[in-house]
Predict the structure.
Amino acid sequence: MRFAKELRRESYDVVFDFMATPRSSVIARMIPAKERIAFHTSRAPLFTQTVPRGKSEEYIVREKFRLLDAIGIHSSDVRLMLPVAERDYDVARNFISSNPELSKSQMRVILSPTHRRAERRWPMERWAELAVWLETSRSAKVIWIWGPGEEGEIDAVMRLAKGAGVKSPKTSFRELAALIKESHLFLGNSNGPSHVAVAMDTPSIQLHGPTSAVSWCPMTERHRAVQRPSMDNISLVDVTNLIGV
């Protein structure tokens, strides 16, 4: 109720409820906006207008555009934009320049093996095998990235990789984005950093098991994905074949 009162004071003209969950729908209804728009559900009476979802799966950004279409805002450009300050790039560039192997490498590859849900993580031993393959077969230099509470996982996978790659320093969100931008390729589970890679337009490969690659990856020449029934079903060859494209 306190949150709803804060929203009411802002006098919004339009509310887009992308989720249309029971909770978000009630909050949307409590905002006295002229337009309240959501995808069609059983809670449609709480909105001034609802929009049907597409008949087939589509990239989630394109899906959200359907709500914009409802009020006459039309767009087909699904590129993401993440503003990053020069000071954030300084952190990334200083890290790279301080490591001669990174600064001289023609192929810096970001590996992001973590995810808070176990079923969405590719097995760590395969990440280790991938790191070794990249450094020995492609003359690449691997950078392992991590977020709060994940450093121990990175230390463990680096031990499996027998020292292949270097661990990124502790970074802020935008410093991480700058580091991804300063690299040539990103590989990760379907996690937050994978979307940062898309926003920074660093070529990326996402790994999907229970999550939908079609929904979460733009599926363009620069941003591709491996989709299998489970993460355990993704082989090293599945990934290296895409890197070779």
